[in-house]
Known about the structure:
Elements: H1 2-29, H2 52-81, H3 96-120, H4 124-151, H5 160-175, H6 181-186, H7 196-221
Helix pairs in contact: 2-7, 3-4, 3-7, 5-7
Subcellular location: Cell membrane; Membrane
Main location: membrane
Organism: Alteromonas naphthalenivorans
Amino acid sequence: MSEQMNSMSEQMNSMSEQMNSMSEQMNSERPDNNSDVDVSNFSRHLNGHNAPIWWGIIGLILIELSVVSAFTVTYLYLYMQHPQWPPNDIPAPPLLIPTWSMILMLLSCVTMYLAGKAVEKNQAKHFVVYTFASVVMACSVLWIRWLQFGNFEMRWDQHVYGSLLWTISGFHFIHIVSAAIGLFGMAGFYTRQRQIGVVVDTMYWNFVAFAWLPFYLVLYFFPRL
C-alpha cells in the first residue's frame, strides 16, 4: 500500500513539473506587455473601401433599393389588375413638374461628383461652389415636389392609386434632404483627409436621384399608355 502511494506521489510530482515547464514556456513566448506598439502608420481618416461607413452606405442603399423595387412591383401589379388606370376617370398627373424635378436631380448628380473631385484635390473653393449648387438644386426639387403635392387631384386615402401616388412621392421627397451635406462643406469641415463623408453622401444622393427614374416612369408614363 505504501509503495502504491509513493508511486502516485511521484506521478503527481512529475505532472506538476510538466505543468510548470509548460507555463514557463508559454510565459517566455508571450510578448512583453510593456512593449511599445508602433502606430505611426495608423490613420484616423479612412477613405474608400477601407472605411466602415463606406460599407454601411452600401448596405443602406441595398435596403432602400429593396423598398424602391417593392413600390415599383406593387404599382405594376395593380396597374395590370385594373383595366382602367387611373381609376374613376382620374386624369393622369401632369408631366411638366416631375420632368423638371428629374432634370434638376440628374444635374445635381454632376455637381456632387465634381464636389467630390474638388475635395480630393483639396480645392476648397471649388468644393464649396459645387456643394452649394447641389444644395440649391436639391432645395429646388423639394419646392417643386411640394407644389406637385398640391396638384394631385385625389386624396391619399381615396383609392389604391391615390395611396400609391402619395406614398411613392412622399417617400422620395423625404430622401432628397440628404443633400444637406453642403452645409458642412461650406463650413470647411471636409478636407482631402476627411473626404469619406462627401464620398458616401454622393453615393447615396446618386441613388436617390436615379431611384426617381422608375418612379417617374410608373407614376407619369404608365397612366398614359
